[in-house]
Amino acid sequence: MILLSGFKKFGKMPENRSEIMILKLPNHINGEKIEKLILPVSWKRSILIYTEFLNNLVELPKVVILLGIHSGKKIHIERYSWNFKFGIDVDNSFNCGFIEFGNNLRIKSAIDLKKIKSRRSHLKDIKISNFPGSYLCNYVYFHALRISMKHYPVIFVHLPHKNGLDNVYYILLDLITEILNI
Fold first, then answer.
1. CA 12 distance to own-chain centroid
2. In this structure, are strands 154-160 and 75-78 parallel, antiparallel, or unpaired?
3. Would you give the distance in Å from CA 168 to the centre of its chain?
4. Which domains are assigned to the chain?
5. Torsion, CA 16, CA 20, CA 25, CA 26, rounded to 10
6. Cβ atoms within 10 A of the Cβ of 125, count?
7. Which pick of 70, 108, 136, 175 has the fewest CB atoms within 10 Å?
8. Which runs of consecutive H residues, i.e. helices, occur in the chain?
9. How far is the C-alpha of 71 from the C-alpha of 73, rounded, in Å?
10. Which pTM value belongs to this model?
């Protein structure tokens, strides 16, 4: 089973591509069931909903793939999550500082990102990124990596906000397939 998560719309944006992609993706990929979770853009509620969802699963996921959006033109797969948060959420809650005092400055994904990218030349529209920002994407990614405690891999994928949906959909589908094949 794969856990696929994204975010609801926020701010002045009429939609959130991560939510659109999750709803558009099939319920099974390569025989693996897809569990889908859409999180609010909220510091407190996003983690509560995420952990509650995990606690109610019958089995541990084979992989957790978190989706968010960014302003770039390529899909970014995030190598690290940084122990830092900054911004105002939809609940009008402002956060600035460490996510968890006493924890590492960054946590690295257990997935070999170079291996994923090198296996398929058409995944050239994907960039390996070292900085997922300091907003909710990074915040949820940090908690997801910490919660997984290496029992299952977690990866964060930033989708471009402006590229064509169909192109992003097919690249994302191929990327998920590659993650499952590692």
1. 21
2. antiparallel
3. 15
4. 2-181 (3.40.630.20)
5. 140
6. 16
7. 108
8. 17-24, 43-55, 113-119, 136-148, 165-181
9. 7
10. 0.94
Q: How many other CB atoms are there within 10 angstroms of residue 95's CB atom?
A: 17
pLDDT tens digits, one per residue of 4-32: 999 999 877 778 999 999 999 999 999 99
Q: Where are the beta strands (DSSP E) in 19-167?
A: 28-29, 32-39, 63-70, 75-78, 80-82, 85-88, 94-97, 106-108, 126-129, 154-160
Contact yes or no for 69/8 (Cβ under 8 A): no
Instruction: Return the number of other C-beta atoms located less than 10 Å from residue 9's C-beta.
Output: 18
State how far the alpha carbon of 26 is from the alpha carbons of 1, 7, 177, in Å.
Answer: 13, 18, 12
What is the rounded CA–CA span in Å between residue 45 and residue 140? 11
Instruction: Specify the length of the chain in residues.
Output: 182
Low-confidence ranges of the chain (pLDDT < 70): 117-123, 163
